[in-house]
Amino acid sequence: MFADAELGERVGDGGEAAAHAKLEANEVRKAMQSLPEEQREAVALVCVDGLAYREAANVLGVPIGTLTSRLARGREALQRMLGAAR
Amino acid sequence: MTIDDEKLMAYADGELAPDERAQIERALAGDATLRERLAAHQRLRKRLSEAFADVMGEPLPESLSVAVSGAAPRTAEVVDLSARREARTKWSVREWTAMAASLAGGVLIGFGALRDDPALIAVTANGMSARGALERALDTQLASDEAEAVRIGLSFRARGGGYCRTFELNAQDTAGIACRGADGWNIAMTTAHDAQGEVRMAGASDALLAAVDEMIVGEPLDAEAEARARDGGWRE
Lengths: 86, 236
Hints:
The structure holds 2 protein chains of 2 kinds. Chain A is mainly α. Chain A contains 5 helices and no strands. The model of chain A is unreliable at 1-12 (pLDDT under 50).
């Protein structure tokens, strides 16, 4: 279980890989929930939804500099919480 | 030279202009610590997209997932293209809905700087759909028509049936693909330009064309077929 079989997680054979993926997902989502809302939105739009900075800034109605600083702070906090390993 | 984290993050996200990108790449070549910081950004992004993809569960409609997975530029200009492509693939309609609800309860999003203007794209329970001038243009405007707020590019038939059209929002540096659904035009993808101008614009239109290429059945409609499809209300 040191290396996740990328496909294995998704195939969902009900085995350890699936359980592991679920735990991992829970951990990440919990960390996201603990972020201030502004940072969470920025991270979700860019890192989850895959929007470009400009698009995400448009969606949130903030200047692009504000978006990038929220994004940077949010990610920094997530990395602290989730650790750099894996 | 020190690279601040915000710049490194922008690099990881494929958001830097070519000269800045080259600067980062030079620094990366000689700095293992910097490479590790970059890898950490990429891993985090992957974990995020996987964690939320897992929650969504439901696969995207075929046409949308094809569009979205084709959305990343094909060039090798950014290191984490695969991560970005992955994030795009998992771009979820439901995530958009949840996000819209969290944004001050607003359902309508004014895309771009002209935020006093009526919204052109609305987030609905079915994802993003065209509104206002964008919806009107998609319904009625031909590629050859004088462009006002919206310029229409290619019209084509997508896999799985139905018509799709590329559009550009002139005032707002945004381009995208909309596909005709049962009750309107669904936004299959959007791409934004930035202040760096032409290079990014070229990148954005490449991404758009790559997505069209993934979605299209046959050739784009010629002027005559486009007019016929419009007159038929973009129905099958």
